[in-house]
Amino acid sequence: MEIDFRKVATYSSNGGWREVTVKEDNTTIKFDLNTYGEIKEFCHHLLDTAFAEMEMDEIIAYLTENSYSDEIIERYEEEKSEAA
Predict the structure, then answer these.
(1) How far is CA 43 from its chain centroid?
(2) In angstroms, what is the C-alpha Rg of the chain?
(3) Residues 30 and 68 in one domain
(4) How many Cβ atoms sit within 10 Å of the Cβ of residue 42?
(5) What are the pLDDT digits (tens) for 38-74?
(6) How far apart are alpha carbons 60 and 4 in whole angstroms?
């Protein structure tokens, strides 16, 4: 599945808009989300869904591979060793 966010030139009192395109196989859907809050909720839902089936060690491996903050990883390792 491929998800693409594009800025749309339309603005309103709710802020700007983003056009979202979702492609999978030969199917494409498009919809708009406002930057006032809808886009944040949508992204949170995507993250929840993506990480829901992963073990914590898999998430840490992903964060490490993609150069996320060492502080997050160190904190997790400390909590993990304290719990053991």
Answers:
(1) 5
(2) 17
(3) no
(4) 16
(5) 888 998 998 888 888 888 888 888 888 888 877 777 8
(6) 25
Both tokens assigned to 26 = 């030969």
Question: How distant is the alpha carbon of residue 77 from its chain centre?
Answer: 23
Which tokens in the block code for residue 1?
Answer: 């599945």
What is the DSSP-derived secondary structure letter of residue 54? S
For the chain, percent of residues with pLDDT exceeding 70: 92
Task: State the number of CA atoms in the 13 A half-sphere of 42 facing the CB.
Answer: 17
pTM: 0.59
Instruction: Read off the tokens for 36.
Output: 């006032």
Number of domains in the chain: 2
